[in-house]
User: What shape does this take?
Amino acid sequence: MTANLESIRRKVEAGEALSDSELATLRDAASGSTGPTLWLTVAHALVNAEAEREALPLLERLRRDFPKDLQVRLGLARALLGLERNGDAEEVLREALVLSPGDPEAIKVLAVLALRRGEKGRAEQYVKDVLARDPFDAEARLLKEELEAVELPVLVPAEEQVLRPEFNAALAAALRRAGVKFRLQGRDVLVKLASGEVARVNVGSLYSAYQGGKRWLAEHVEKLAAQLGGLSSGVSEDAAALERQLRPVLRPAGFESQAVGALHREGPAGLEIFYVLEDPQYVRYLPESTLKATGLTVEAVDNAAWRNLEAHPAPIRPVVVDRGVVRLAETFSGLWAVVAGDGHDGARLLTQEQRRRLALQAGEGPLRVNLGWREFALLCRESDAAECEALAKLGHAPDGIPGLFRLTAEGLSRS
Assistant: This one.
């Protein structure tokens, strides 16, 4: 590592913001590396610059590519906390503790989260666990002093815990009372904005972040309903800025009934192509009304969306199907996943660069495709009967696209 790069790395570790040239140097060095270390440093540099939204997709990719790396999990939790997604951050920290039971860094962050929620007893136990291992841990000692100095409300009794179905039902009722048009769909809630755009919000994250018990549930979901109902479309009227955000997604026929007012066109194999704005937190469909406000045409939107996606191909990983669950494989398996995990992997199959990468892995012949999950696209060679049968038996998620498809040089068609 050069002296300049080492100096940049130390600045990142100290929490300092990098200059544009320093960040570019760090990115260049990371692009030539094989492990997660330098890319993780890039992500921390972005968080230091309060660019958590830009860091988050990078950290998600690192978690997928290096699933056993503890520091990647801790970095992802840091970015989520910066975005105030505390429930998601806690889930990642618990994953870190599975990788490294008793890890003090993960436990200290869990203590801070407990402190924020008013869970004094739990926070004290976390700090006690860290100090039992290292009585000189400076951060844990500061947390201990803070806990001793601050009076926090008593934790809601365990018997009053709200279960997920009860939370979902209460949220749905609050949204109806607030006059918000919505649809619960699996782990998400689709919310129709005043502009006609549809936003997708993860209900699992909302539930994980709620620790108030039954007593405070009604008040909490009323506030959530008001927040969701007040979501703005966030669509820029600057045509050039809007074009940079666009990405295409594949949806099943008839999806326009779930994304009313969203711009879309007919796609291959009986599917429809919708356009979304790049956002790490919400799925935001582009309203058709945006065309008039920006002066863009459908063709310009379509071209920009595919151009942007072409520039961001996804990694291709070997996978296996284990008792109905897709898992990464350590060696060649005959099944592959296109797995950027950002919801665009199905559409990536129609881009030239992704097809080129697929050909290097699976050859030039026809491929069988399962688009049953938005987080990835599954493929195998059409000539591999056993793998084709495995894809057929796998089915699909509630928000996925049912059925199998055939991918050839001519494009995507129904199998």
